[in-house]
UniProtKB/TrEMBL annotation:
Gene giving rise to this polypeptide: Trmt11
PANTHER family in the record: RNA METHYLASE-RELATED, TRNA (GUANINE(10)-N2)-METHYLTRANSFERASE HOMOLOG
Biological source species: Penelope pileata
Entry protein name: tRNA (guanine(10)-N(2))-methyltransferase TRMT11
Keyword Transcription regulation: no
Domain Ribosomal RNA large subunit methyltransferase K/L-like methyltransferase: 172-301
Length: 442
Protein backbone atom coordinates (compact mmCIF):
# COMPACT_ATOMS: atom_id res chain seq x y z
CA UNK A 1 0.00 0.00 0.00
CA UNK A 2 2.95 2.34 0.55
CA UNK A 3 3.71 2.13 -3.19
CA UNK A 4 0.12 3.23 -3.82
CA UNK A 5 0.38 6.14 -1.40
CA UNK A 6 3.64 7.44 -2.87
CA UNK A 7 2.42 7.05 -6.45
CA UNK A 8 -0.76 9.03 -5.74
CA UNK A 9 1.20 11.63 -3.75
CA UNK A 10 3.65 12.13 -6.64
CA UNK A 11 0.85 12.44 -9.19
CA UNK A 12 -1.12 14.86 -7.01
CA UNK A 13 1.98 17.07 -6.73
CA UNK A 14 2.44 16.84 -10.52
CA UNK A 15 -1.10 18.19 -11.01
CA UNK A 16 -0.87 20.76 -8.21
CA UNK A 17 -2.72 18.90 -5.42
CA UNK A 18 -1.59 17.28 -2.19
CA UNK A 19 -2.58 14.97 0.66
CA UNK A 20 -3.79 16.51 3.88
CA UNK A 21 -2.63 15.13 7.24
CA UNK A 22 -6.10 13.67 7.81
CA UNK A 23 -5.96 11.71 4.57
CA UNK A 24 -2.57 10.21 5.44
CA UNK A 25 -4.08 8.56 8.53
CA UNK A 26 -6.35 6.42 6.32
CA UNK A 27 -3.52 5.18 4.07
CA UNK A 28 -4.00 1.53 5.16
CA UNK A 29 -7.61 1.50 3.98
CA UNK A 30 -8.49 0.33 0.44
CA UNK A 31 -10.66 3.46 0.16
CA UNK A 32 -9.11 6.92 0.45
CA UNK A 33 -10.83 10.29 0.72
CA UNK A 34 -8.89 12.94 -1.21
CA UNK A 35 -9.38 16.68 -1.45
CA UNK A 36 -8.98 17.35 -5.17
CA UNK A 37 -9.75 20.90 -6.38
CA UNK A 38 -11.35 19.91 -9.68
CA UNK A 39 -12.79 17.01 -11.62
CA UNK A 40 -10.27 17.79 -14.36
CA UNK A 41 -7.41 17.13 -11.94
CA UNK A 42 -9.09 13.90 -10.80
CA UNK A 43 -9.31 12.70 -14.42
CA UNK A 44 -5.67 13.66 -15.01
CA UNK A 45 -4.65 11.63 -11.96
CA UNK A 46 -6.52 8.57 -13.21
CA UNK A 47 -4.95 8.82 -16.67
CA UNK A 48 -1.63 8.07 -14.97
CA UNK A 49 -2.11 5.81 -11.96
CA UNK A 50 -1.68 2.03 -12.17
CA UNK A 51 -2.28 1.59 -8.42
CA UNK A 52 -5.73 3.19 -8.01
CA UNK A 53 -8.72 1.39 -9.51
CA UNK A 54 -11.31 4.19 -9.73
CA UNK A 55 -12.13 7.68 -8.48
CA UNK A 56 -15.57 8.95 -7.39
CA UNK A 57 -17.19 12.19 -6.35
CA UNK A 58 -18.10 11.42 -2.72
CA UNK A 59 -21.71 12.19 -1.86
CA UNK A 60 -21.95 10.38 1.44
CA UNK A 61 -19.87 8.44 3.99
CA UNK A 62 -20.61 6.70 7.29
CA UNK A 63 -19.61 3.89 9.63
CA UNK A 64 -23.09 2.38 9.40
CA UNK A 65 -25.96 2.38 6.92
CA UNK A 66 -27.79 4.95 9.05
CA UNK A 67 -24.77 7.26 9.08
CA UNK A 68 -24.38 6.90 5.30
CA UNK A 69 -28.05 7.80 4.66
CA UNK A 70 -27.85 10.80 7.02
CA UNK A 71 -24.69 11.95 5.24
CA UNK A 72 -26.41 11.66 1.85
CA UNK A 73 -29.42 13.69 3.06
CA UNK A 74 -27.02 16.45 4.07
CA UNK A 75 -25.23 16.53 0.70
CA UNK A 76 -26.10 19.79 -1.15
CA UNK A 77 -29.03 19.23 -3.49
CA UNK A 78 -27.65 21.67 -6.09
CA UNK A 79 -24.59 19.38 -6.48
CA UNK A 80 -26.80 16.31 -6.96
CA UNK A 81 -29.42 17.62 -9.37
CA UNK A 82 -27.27 17.99 -12.53
CA UNK A 83 -26.84 14.19 -12.52
CA UNK A 84 -30.45 13.29 -11.60
CA UNK A 85 -32.38 15.05 -14.38
CA UNK A 86 -35.51 13.39 -15.89
CA UNK A 87 -33.88 13.13 -19.34
CA UNK A 88 -30.77 11.39 -18.00
CA UNK A 89 -29.95 7.68 -17.60
CA UNK A 90 -28.14 6.05 -14.69
CA UNK A 91 -27.36 2.87 -12.84
CA UNK A 92 -26.23 2.05 -9.28
CA UNK A 93 -23.52 -0.54 -8.60
CA UNK A 94 -22.12 -1.97 -5.38
CA UNK A 95 -18.58 -3.05 -4.50
CA UNK A 96 -17.62 -4.78 -1.27
CA UNK A 97 -14.00 -5.13 -0.15
CA UNK A 98 -13.15 -8.42 1.64
CA UNK A 99 -16.68 -9.81 1.43
CA UNK A 100 -18.95 -11.27 -1.26
CA UNK A 101 -22.67 -10.41 -1.25
CA UNK A 102 -25.47 -12.31 -2.95
CA UNK A 103 -27.39 -10.57 -5.73
CA UNK A 104 -30.42 -10.32 -3.44
CA UNK A 105 -28.33 -8.57 -0.75
CA UNK A 106 -26.98 -6.13 -3.32
CA UNK A 107 -30.47 -5.27 -4.63
CA UNK A 108 -31.70 -4.72 -1.06
CA UNK A 109 -28.88 -2.22 -0.38
CA UNK A 110 -29.51 -0.40 -3.67
CA UNK A 111 -33.29 -0.21 -3.02
CA UNK A 112 -32.58 1.37 0.38
CA UNK A 113 -31.37 4.48 -1.52
CA UNK A 114 -34.84 5.20 -2.95
CA UNK A 115 -34.98 8.40 -0.86
CA UNK A 116 -32.47 9.98 -3.28
CA UNK A 117 -34.24 12.15 -5.91
CA UNK A 118 -33.42 10.01 -8.97
CA UNK A 119 -35.80 11.11 -11.73
CA UNK A 120 -34.03 9.72 -14.80
CA UNK A 121 -34.33 6.23 -16.32
CA UNK A 122 -32.31 3.20 -15.29
CA UNK A 123 -30.00 1.97 -18.06
CA UNK A 124 -27.81 -0.97 -17.12
CA UNK A 125 -25.91 -1.20 -20.42
CA UNK A 126 -24.90 2.34 -21.33
CA UNK A 127 -25.91 4.89 -18.67
CA UNK A 128 -24.84 8.55 -18.66
CA UNK A 129 -24.10 8.44 -14.93
CA UNK A 130 -22.91 5.57 -12.75
CA UNK A 131 -23.23 5.63 -8.97
CA UNK A 132 -21.47 3.28 -6.58
CA UNK A 133 -22.03 1.99 -3.07
CA UNK A 134 -18.63 1.02 -1.63
CA UNK A 135 -18.37 -1.10 1.53
CA UNK A 136 -15.18 -1.78 3.47
CA UNK A 137 -15.09 -5.02 5.52
CA UNK A 138 -11.48 -4.58 6.65
CA UNK A 139 -8.18 -6.08 5.53
CA UNK A 140 -8.27 -9.42 7.38
CA UNK A 141 -9.84 -12.23 5.29
CA UNK A 142 -9.87 -14.49 8.38
CA UNK A 143 -11.86 -12.01 10.46
CA UNK A 144 -14.62 -10.53 8.30
CA UNK A 145 -17.18 -8.51 10.31
CA UNK A 146 -20.92 -8.95 9.80
CA UNK A 147 -21.40 -5.25 9.06
CA UNK A 148 -19.02 -3.02 7.08
CA UNK A 149 -16.53 -0.80 8.91
CA UNK A 150 -17.11 2.07 6.45
CA UNK A 151 -19.66 2.80 3.73
CA UNK A 152 -19.38 5.28 0.86
CA UNK A 153 -21.67 6.48 -1.92
CA UNK A 154 -20.55 8.52 -4.87
CA UNK A 155 -20.64 9.33 -8.58
CA UNK A 156 -18.07 7.50 -10.70
CA UNK A 157 -15.65 9.85 -12.48
CA UNK A 158 -12.88 7.72 -14.04
CA UNK A 159 -10.93 4.47 -13.85
CA UNK A 160 -7.16 4.14 -13.43
CA UNK A 161 -4.74 2.62 -15.91
CA UNK A 162 -4.50 -0.94 -14.60
CA UNK A 163 -5.00 -2.33 -18.10
CA UNK A 164 -1.48 -1.03 -18.90
CA UNK A 165 -0.07 -3.80 -16.70
CA UNK A 166 -1.50 -6.40 -19.06
CA UNK A 167 -1.02 -4.58 -22.38
CA UNK A 168 2.64 -3.82 -21.57
CA UNK A 169 3.32 -7.22 -19.98
CA UNK A 170 6.91 -8.45 -20.30
CA UNK A 171 5.50 -11.81 -21.45
CA UNK A 172 4.35 -10.12 -24.68
CA UNK A 173 7.43 -7.89 -25.07
CA UNK A 174 9.52 -8.29 -28.22
CA UNK A 175 12.95 -7.83 -26.59
CA UNK A 176 13.58 -8.93 -22.98
CA UNK A 177 16.56 -9.69 -20.75
CA UNK A 178 17.26 -11.54 -17.51
CA UNK A 179 16.24 -8.55 -15.41
CA UNK A 180 13.53 -6.84 -17.48
CA UNK A 181 11.35 -4.82 -15.10
CA UNK A 182 7.76 -5.84 -14.42
CA UNK A 183 5.36 -3.55 -16.31
CA UNK A 184 3.44 -2.46 -13.20
CA UNK A 185 6.63 -1.42 -11.38
CA UNK A 186 7.89 0.38 -14.50
CA UNK A 187 4.80 2.59 -14.55
CA UNK A 188 4.97 3.15 -10.79
CA UNK A 189 8.60 4.31 -11.23
CA UNK A 190 7.63 6.73 -14.01
CA UNK A 191 4.87 8.12 -11.81
CA UNK A 192 7.22 8.47 -8.82
CA UNK A 193 9.52 10.38 -11.19
CA UNK A 194 6.60 12.66 -12.18
CA UNK A 195 7.38 12.06 -15.86
CA UNK A 196 5.35 14.33 -18.13
CA UNK A 197 5.09 15.05 -21.88
CA UNK A 198 8.27 16.46 -23.52
CA UNK A 199 10.50 15.54 -20.56
CA UNK A 200 13.86 13.94 -21.26
CA UNK A 201 14.26 10.73 -19.23
CA UNK A 202 17.52 8.84 -18.90
CA UNK A 203 18.38 5.30 -17.72
CA UNK A 204 22.13 4.74 -17.11
CA UNK A 205 21.61 0.95 -16.77
CA UNK A 206 19.17 0.69 -19.64
CA UNK A 207 19.40 -3.06 -20.40
CA UNK A 208 16.52 -3.95 -22.73
CA UNK A 209 14.83 -0.57 -22.19
CA UNK A 210 11.83 -1.64 -20.10
CA UNK A 211 11.94 1.51 -17.99
CA UNK A 212 12.10 3.72 -21.10
CA UNK A 213 8.79 2.31 -22.35
CA UNK A 214 6.69 3.53 -19.41
CA UNK A 215 8.19 7.04 -19.61
CA UNK A 216 7.64 7.17 -23.39
CA UNK A 217 4.02 6.10 -22.85
CA UNK A 218 3.57 9.30 -20.82
CA UNK A 219 5.03 11.40 -23.65
CA UNK A 220 8.68 11.76 -22.53
CA UNK A 221 11.69 11.49 -24.83
CA UNK A 222 13.87 8.64 -23.61
CA UNK A 223 17.50 7.57 -23.84
CA UNK A 224 19.90 5.30 -21.99
CA UNK A 225 23.35 3.80 -21.71
CA UNK A 226 24.64 0.37 -20.74
CA UNK A 227 28.08 -1.21 -20.46
CA UNK A 228 26.91 -4.39 -22.21
CA UNK A 229 27.48 -4.09 -25.98
CA UNK A 230 25.45 -7.23 -26.74
CA UNK A 231 22.38 -6.02 -24.86
CA UNK A 232 22.40 -2.56 -26.47
CA UNK A 233 22.72 -4.11 -29.95
CA UNK A 234 20.41 -7.06 -29.30
CA UNK A 235 23.09 -9.69 -29.86
CA UNK A 236 24.00 -12.95 -28.14
CA UNK A 237 21.92 -15.48 -26.23
CA UNK A 238 18.22 -14.90 -25.75
CA UNK A 239 16.58 -14.71 -22.31
CA UNK A 240 13.27 -16.07 -23.55
CA UNK A 241 12.41 -19.72 -22.94
CA UNK A 242 12.80 -22.05 -25.97
CA UNK A 243 14.87 -19.46 -27.86
CA UNK A 244 18.64 -19.84 -28.09
CA UNK A 245 19.79 -16.64 -29.84
CA UNK A 246 18.33 -13.15 -30.14
CA UNK A 247 16.81 -12.31 -33.51
CA UNK A 248 18.13 -9.58 -35.86
CA UNK A 249 15.40 -7.10 -34.83
CA UNK A 250 15.48 -7.67 -31.06
CA UNK A 251 16.52 -4.29 -29.69
CA UNK A 252 15.27 -1.36 -27.61
CA UNK A 253 13.96 0.55 -30.64
CA UNK A 254 11.85 -2.46 -31.65
CA UNK A 255 10.32 -2.54 -28.14
CA UNK A 256 9.22 1.09 -28.41
CA UNK A 257 8.00 0.50 -31.96
CA UNK A 258 5.88 -2.41 -30.66
CA UNK A 259 3.86 0.07 -28.57
CA UNK A 260 3.80 2.88 -31.14
CA UNK A 261 6.33 4.94 -29.13
CA UNK A 262 9.33 4.97 -31.48
CA UNK A 263 9.05 8.75 -32.01
CA UNK A 264 10.03 9.26 -28.35
CA UNK A 265 13.22 7.18 -28.60
CA UNK A 266 16.38 9.30 -28.71
CA UNK A 267 19.04 6.56 -28.56
CA UNK A 268 20.87 4.04 -26.42
CA UNK A 269 24.66 4.12 -26.18
CA UNK A 270 27.32 1.67 -25.04
CA UNK A 271 28.87 3.48 -22.09
CA UNK A 272 30.14 2.97 -18.56
CA UNK A 273 27.94 4.75 -15.99
CA UNK A 274 30.99 5.41 -13.79
CA UNK A 275 32.48 7.60 -16.57
CA UNK A 276 29.78 10.08 -17.71
CA UNK A 277 29.97 10.93 -21.40
CA UNK A 278 27.66 13.95 -21.26
CA UNK A 279 28.56 17.61 -21.63
CA UNK A 280 28.30 19.72 -18.48
CA UNK A 281 24.90 21.11 -17.63
CA UNK A 282 21.44 20.06 -16.49
CA UNK A 283 20.17 17.71 -19.18
CA UNK A 284 17.54 15.36 -17.74
CA UNK A 285 14.10 15.88 -16.21
CA UNK A 286 14.19 12.43 -14.62
CA UNK A 287 16.65 9.58 -14.14
CA UNK A 288 14.81 6.28 -13.70
CA UNK A 289 16.89 3.13 -13.37
CA UNK A 290 17.45 -0.30 -11.85
CA UNK A 291 21.20 -0.75 -11.21
CA UNK A 292 22.66 -4.30 -11.25
CA UNK A 293 22.89 -6.00 -7.84
CA UNK A 294 25.44 -8.65 -8.85
CA UNK A 295 22.80 -11.44 -8.68
CA UNK A 296 21.46 -11.97 -12.21
CA UNK A 297 23.60 -9.28 -13.82
CA UNK A 298 27.26 -8.56 -13.04
CA UNK A 299 28.40 -5.25 -11.55
CA UNK A 300 31.30 -4.18 -13.74
CA UNK A 301 33.02 -1.11 -15.07
CA UNK A 302 35.58 -0.34 -17.77
CA UNK A 303 39.24 0.23 -17.01
CA UNK A 304 42.80 -0.14 -18.23
CA UNK A 305 45.41 -2.42 -16.68
CA UNK A 306 47.67 0.41 -15.51
CA UNK A 307 45.19 3.02 -14.36
CA UNK A 308 44.92 4.06 -10.74
CA UNK A 309 41.94 5.55 -8.93
CA UNK A 310 43.44 9.04 -8.98
CA UNK A 311 44.32 9.11 -12.66
CA UNK A 312 40.89 7.82 -13.69
CA UNK A 313 39.15 11.10 -12.78
CA UNK A 314 38.90 13.38 -15.77
CA UNK A 315 40.98 11.08 -17.94
CA UNK A 316 40.27 11.11 -21.67
CA UNK A 317 42.36 8.08 -22.63
CA UNK A 318 40.73 5.11 -24.33
CA UNK A 319 39.93 2.27 -21.95
CA UNK A 320 39.79 -1.38 -22.87
CA UNK A 321 37.08 -3.61 -21.43
CA UNK A 322 38.60 -5.60 -18.60
CA UNK A 323 36.99 -7.20 -15.59
CA UNK A 324 37.07 -4.53 -12.93
CA UNK A 325 35.30 -4.65 -9.56
CA UNK A 326 32.55 -2.10 -9.13
CA UNK A 327 31.23 -2.16 -5.59
CA UNK A 328 27.52 -1.65 -5.05
CA UNK A 329 28.22 1.32 -2.77
CA UNK A 330 30.23 2.96 -5.57
CA UNK A 331 27.46 2.29 -8.11
CA UNK A 332 24.95 4.16 -5.96
CA UNK A 333 27.29 7.02 -5.10
CA UNK A 334 28.19 7.48 -8.76
CA UNK A 335 24.45 7.43 -9.55
CA UNK A 336 23.61 10.08 -6.94
CA UNK A 337 26.55 12.25 -7.98
CA UNK A 338 25.48 11.99 -11.62
CA UNK A 339 21.86 12.85 -10.75
CA UNK A 340 22.97 15.84 -8.64
CA UNK A 341 24.94 17.19 -11.59
CA UNK A 342 22.76 16.36 -14.59
CA UNK A 343 19.17 16.59 -13.32
CA UNK A 344 17.25 19.82 -13.83
CA UNK A 345 16.19 21.60 -10.63
CA UNK A 346 13.14 19.77 -9.29
CA UNK A 347 13.99 16.72 -11.43
CA UNK A 348 13.74 13.30 -9.84
CA UNK A 349 15.98 10.26 -9.45
CA UNK A 350 14.12 6.96 -9.02
CA UNK A 351 16.10 3.77 -8.46
CA UNK A 352 16.08 0.39 -6.68
CA UNK A 353 18.40 -0.26 -3.72
CA UNK A 354 18.94 -3.93 -2.64
CA UNK A 355 18.76 -4.49 1.12
CA UNK A 356 19.78 -7.25 3.55
CA UNK A 357 16.80 -6.92 5.89
CA UNK A 358 18.36 -8.02 9.23
CA UNK A 359 20.89 -5.17 8.95
CA UNK A 360 18.63 -2.50 7.45
CA UNK A 361 18.42 0.97 8.95
CA UNK A 362 17.52 4.23 7.20
CA UNK A 363 21.13 5.38 7.68
CA UNK A 364 22.28 3.07 4.87
CA UNK A 365 20.23 4.95 2.25
CA UNK A 366 22.83 6.91 0.20
CA UNK A 367 22.48 10.70 0.46
CA UNK A 368 23.74 13.74 -1.42
CA UNK A 369 23.48 17.42 -0.40
CA UNK A 370 21.85 18.32 -3.73
CA UNK A 371 19.15 15.63 -3.46
CA UNK A 372 16.20 15.39 -1.08
CA UNK A 373 14.77 11.96 -0.19
CA UNK A 374 11.10 11.93 -1.21
CA UNK A 375 10.07 8.33 -0.62
CA UNK A 376 11.43 4.90 0.32
CA UNK A 377 9.18 1.89 -0.49
CA UNK A 378 10.04 -1.75 0.18
CA UNK A 379 9.44 -4.75 -2.10
CA UNK A 380 10.19 -8.11 -0.49
CA UNK A 381 12.51 -10.44 -2.43
CA UNK A 382 12.89 -13.17 0.22
CA UNK A 383 12.63 -13.60 3.99
CA UNK A 384 16.00 -11.90 4.44
CA UNK A 385 16.36 -9.63 1.40
CA UNK A 386 14.33 -6.88 -0.22
CA UNK A 387 14.80 -3.93 -2.50
CA UNK A 388 13.71 -0.40 -1.84
CA UNK A 389 12.37 1.99 -4.43
CA UNK A 390 14.13 5.25 -3.63
CA UNK A 391 12.82 8.55 -5.00
CA UNK A 392 14.94 11.70 -4.65
CA UNK A 393 14.43 15.24 -5.92
CA UNK A 394 17.09 17.77 -6.90
CA UNK A 395 16.73 20.74 -4.56
CA UNK A 396 20.17 22.41 -4.77
CA UNK A 397 22.35 23.44 -7.68
CA UNK A 398 25.42 21.25 -8.14
CA UNK A 399 28.79 22.88 -7.37
CA UNK A 400 32.28 21.47 -7.81
CA UNK A 401 32.63 21.06 -4.04
CA UNK A 402 29.68 18.62 -4.14
CA UNK A 403 31.67 16.26 -6.38
CA UNK A 404 32.83 13.92 -3.59
CA UNK A 405 30.85 15.30 -0.67
CA UNK A 406 29.86 11.83 0.52
CA UNK A 407 33.55 11.01 1.23
CA UNK A 408 33.53 13.66 3.94
CA UNK A 409 30.36 12.27 5.48
CA UNK A 410 30.87 10.36 8.72
CA UNK A 411 28.01 8.09 7.68
CA UNK A 412 29.82 6.86 4.57
CA UNK A 413 30.99 3.62 6.21
CA UNK A 414 27.47 2.19 6.81
CA UNK A 415 26.79 2.46 3.05
CA UNK A 416 29.66 0.04 2.35
CA UNK A 417 27.44 -2.73 3.72
CA UNK A 418 25.75 -2.90 0.30
CA UNK A 419 28.96 -4.42 -1.08
CA UNK A 420 28.29 -7.77 0.62
CA UNK A 421 24.66 -7.97 -0.58
CA UNK A 422 25.44 -10.71 -3.12
CA UNK A 423 27.12 -12.95 -0.54
CA UNK A 424 24.29 -12.42 1.96
CA UNK A 425 21.69 -13.07 -0.72
CA UNK A 426 23.22 -16.40 -1.69
CA UNK A 427 23.96 -17.40 1.91
CA UNK A 428 20.22 -17.17 2.54
CA UNK A 429 19.47 -19.23 -0.58
CA UNK A 430 21.98 -21.89 0.52
CA UNK A 431 20.44 -22.06 4.01
CA UNK A 432 16.93 -22.40 2.57
CA UNK A 433 17.95 -25.23 0.21
CA UNK A 434 19.70 -27.04 3.08
CA UNK A 435 16.59 -26.68 5.26
CA UNK A 436 14.31 -27.98 2.48
CA UNK A 437 16.60 -30.98 1.94
CA UNK A 438 16.61 -31.69 5.69
CA UNK A 439 12.81 -31.45 5.86
CA UNK A 440 12.45 -33.80 2.88
CA UNK A 441 14.61 -36.41 4.59
CA UNK A 442 12.32 -36.53 7.64
Amino acid sequence: LYFHFQEITSLLSLYGGQFSSQQEIRVNSPFWILNIPSEEMARGLMKRTVCAKSIFELWGHGRSAGELYASLKNYPMDKMLPYLQPDSTYKVRIHTFNKTLTQAQKIKKIDALEFLPFSGKVNLKNPEHIFWILEDYGMDPNNVPEEPLDLYFGRWIADGQRELIESYSVKKRHFIGNTSMDACLSFIMANHGRVKPNDIVYDPFVGTGGLLISSAHFGAYVCGTDIDYNTIHGLGKASRKNQKWRGPDENIRANLRQYGLERYYLDALVSDSSRPIWRKGMLFDAIITDPPYGIREATRRTGSPKESVKSSEGSTENHIFISSSYHLSDIFFDLLKFAAEYLVMGGRLVYWLPIYRPEYTEEIIPRHPCLKLISNCEQMLSSHTSRRLITMEKVKEFKDQDQNSYLLDGQYMPYRGHNSFREKYFSGVTKRIAKEEKDNQK
